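Retro notes, structure queue

What went well: the backlog is down to a handful. What didn't: a couple of records were mislabeled last round, so from now on we paste the full input next to the output in the thread. Example, using Membrane protein from Prevotella herbatica:
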Amino acid sequence: MNKKNIFKTMAVVAVATMAMTSCDQSAPKLDSKSDAAQSNPTKLKIAYVEVDSIMSQYKFCKDYSLTLQKKGQNIQSTLAAKQQQLQAAAANFQQKVQQNAYTREQAEAINAGLQRQNADLQTLNQRLSAEFQSETNKYNNALRDSIQNFLKVYNKDKKYTLILSKAGDNLLYADKTYDITNEVIAGLNKSYKPSAKMAATEKK
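Corresponding output:
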């Protein structure tokens, strides 16, 4: 299963509270306030995080990726086995029909049964696919929340105005001086504690 496909919709953006300087109360006019803000811009403190590095190095991502991969493989195996059984039954039915092994009523009954099995297989496919998508969405939400919650704590001391996510070419240029990826990954991994279910998956 392609890991990038699972996580392709993920982007990490954490926005810290911006400290704005108070406007001059003695100048109530809107134009005067705008001029003052332009002439005395607030100094921004910006950092960014490499999303791809988080995906490959954050233990939570590794563990959940393994869980999703195994779940996807189990779904594929289940559907493939049932599809093969149905195809074998259909082929056997066609062969018996050609050999005139059934009466018309028997053939119609068997054919109807095969159609029901095919419909059941399609329903199973849709259900398992929906379950897998739900699990993927659950993971994406948990990943986003874990990163945002960590950055809230992390930024109490760092006091960045903005912490941006860098994924692919969404930032045309970023000075490595502002790259805090390694710090964030180290902090995330330090605070990460896998659930009992996740720990059991790792041992298998």
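Agreed that this is the format going forward. Reviewer comment attached to the example: Confidence is low (pLDDT under 50) at residues 1-34.
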